[in-house]
Model the fold of this input.
Amino acid sequence: MHEHHIDLNARLEAHAILDRLVADGPTFPAGAARWLIDLVPVAPSSRISFTGVFRRRGPGAKGHAAGIGDINLEGEEKQTTFTLNVPASHRIGGYVVTHTPGHLDIELMWSETRADRTGQSCSLIYDVDTREPEEMRIAVQKSLTVLFITFHYISLVPWKTPEST
Done:
């Protein structure tokens, strides 16, 4: 497929393949991975892409309620997301899939709601020329603290290899 969208039947098929790829175990079905590589359209890759999220809470209120006591109403949380050169992604079932040459990134749709994003995403690595799957890597969250600011980042570590045929 060279289009930038996935039709319903391909989306359902891709969802079943994704479930097989991320299932427990040290290996993944190489044939299914090849089929998924062909199903999901490839987006052009950029050398640098960035996604950022700012979260803040609106004003709250404190007071005293008769018969209840002291109360504290927290303000509504506001979130602003910004992106720079992020390739197109596809929502397939409970996954968000981004396909750039040599990488098929798979993320759980609700992963951003977790404080620790370890295990919430993975990447299928394949040879660009032969389209042969090489390995899968899983996300591990790490932290770096500089003075009073902590940066959380995701590192992909080896996870699965293709099944022997």
